[in-house]
Amino acid sequence: MLSQISHGNYYKLTCNEGKQMLSQSSKLNQMAKIKEDFQIIFFISISLFLVFSSSCDAHQFLRMCQFDSIYQLGDSLADTGNRIIENSLGTACSKFPYGETFFNHPTDRCSNGLLMIDYLALEAGLPFLNTYLKNDSDFSNGVNFAVGGATALPTSILAAIGLFSPSSNSSLDVQLDWMSSFFNTTGHAQMLKDALFLVGEIGGNDFYNAFLRANKTIEEAKTFLPDVIQVISDAVRVIKYGARRVVVPGNFPIGSLPVYRTAFKTNNSTSAYDEFNCLKDFNDFAEYFNEPATCHNELRNENPDTVIVYANYYNAFQWLSVMLFFWASLFTCSLVIGEKIRIHRFDVTYQICLGESLTL
Hints:
Blueprint: E1 2-4, H1 7-10, H2 15-22, H3 37-46, H4 56-64, E2 69-73, H5 82-86, H6 116-123, E3 142-144, H7 155-160, H8 172-186, E4 195-199, H9 204-213, H10 218-235, E5 245-249, H11 258-263, H12 269-272, H13 280-290, H14 297-302, E6 307-311, H15 313-328, E7 349-351, E8 357-359
Parallel strand pairs: 1-8, 2-3, 2-4, 4-5, 5-6
Antiparallel strand pairs: 7-8
Helix pairs in contact: 2-3, 10-13
């Protein structure tokens, strides 16, 4: 069964109403033993894909859920300045046109404006997260440990299979060490019941380096894919620090990204491309990568008071692709340079490992 809620109704949804809606599903009743936080985080994490909305109701909704801090692990999709501190010579994202629309100057965010973590913080009524490597920062509302170019696997393991990470050595294990050091030093681990943890997105650079820098095939990449999945799953154990609400984002449909479509362009349009002119094999690989991330039943059983949610970036991106294609005929899996398209609502399916989905 697929439950559906219209966009308009979403903005009128409160945390308590969300709880009532979830209880209508017989299978979701299996989750009744989990605390009320489950309903809260489930709907709040959906805001990752509604962050562009200017709706007043959306602001009120997030703030009702009362996150007091956010802790972010990841790569350039979330890095707000760690990489530029690591690399004093600068990066591509430290130059224009990056940063031109919001800050009016580059901030090393790999965006012309804000990132998803920025929007999430704003909607939750929190300041932008300070980066871990920025000395003397205020970390009272959380910390951003993400580093642009970071991989899920340690660089030593990647090197052993012929892969190199020229952008950063601050892989997921390094970021987790930073987090451990931070909590041990500050004692913040005692105050995390109202914190939100985001474990990623991460792992995309492992395969970017494999496919585009080392010319690995999809079959070769599948040989170390289980290792990537395992380190991400292990990172979900941030719950040992006291995390009670954890979101684990999946990866994007990489076969829809311009860099992949350019590098692997082929005249074999019948078998290589789907109806949106995206590379089918690479998108199938991304789905294969994401599938294990949708379920963390073992961790849930071990930690019934902890909420662990999978954020489906793949479906969100595909929905956006279809809408752009439909609305403006501008999207053939390549963003039109110079066009500024503002999207105010996203569609996303959340799978919760009970055979049920909720689509907003």
